Amino acid sequence: MDAIILQILNGLDKGSAYALIALGLTLIFGTLGVVNFAHGALFMIGAFCAVLLSRILSMSYTTIDETRTDFLGNPMQVNVPYAYDFFGEAAGQTIIEWAVPLAILFAIPIMILIGVAMERGLIKHFYKRPHADQILVTFGLAIVLQEIIKYYFGANPIPTPAPPAFTGSFDFGALLGFDANQILYPYWRLVYFIFAAIIIGAVFAFLQFTTFGMVVRAGMADRETVGLLGINIDKRFTIMFGLAAAVAGLAGVMYGPIYSPNYHMGMDFLVLSFVVVVVGGMGSLPGAVAAGFLLGILESFASMREVINIIPGINQIIIYLVAIIILLARPRGLMGRKGVMED
Question: What is the pLDDT of residues 250-263, one digit of tens each?
Answer without folding.
Answer: 999 999 998 889 99
